Amino acid sequence: xxxxKTILVLLAISLMGFLGNAQEEHEMEGENHQExxxxxxxHKHVISLGIGHAHINTGVENxxxxxxxxxxxxxxxxxxxxxxxxxxxxxxxxxxxxxxxxEHGSESxxxxxxxxxxxxxxxxxxxxxxxxxxxxxxEYETSESFxxxxxxxxxxxxxxxxxxxxxxxxxxxxxxxxxxxNLSLGIGRGF
Length: 191
Known about the structure:
signal, Porin, Outer membrane protein beta-barrel domain-containing protein, alpha+beta, 19% helix
């Protein structure tokens, strides 16, 4: 629990630094801001690849309830149909076998082996460097699949005309199963 508080504090401090930097840059740009904004063009199609960790607070290890932090990959496709709205297909894969406590608090344990989540997502970009994500889908695994709802926040920064880096912070709520917090770092390419 202490580790999560530390992570949240570090994340908040990092985001405040980006906000302060963005305000400073905005003041320095002055009149050129409008010209640059007109030149800025969002690519309609964006494919992103990320690496991260899935955090599960109902994990089971050696028969004891444990907070699990598991390696994961993500691969996303988004179609931006306006400057602020996109639809997409987002996928995550936890690359480890693990056990979780059954949601209803019984003594039963669910074993998961490399589950893959596929989510239809809607993204909204309220400001240039931040996207809010919501969607629904399924987490597939050989023994049992679960429906899920996903909510997330994705700050992103352009590093080149067609390339951007991003941080993905997401929460998957799985029906009749377990919930997952995801924290990923990735790169995306627009075309």
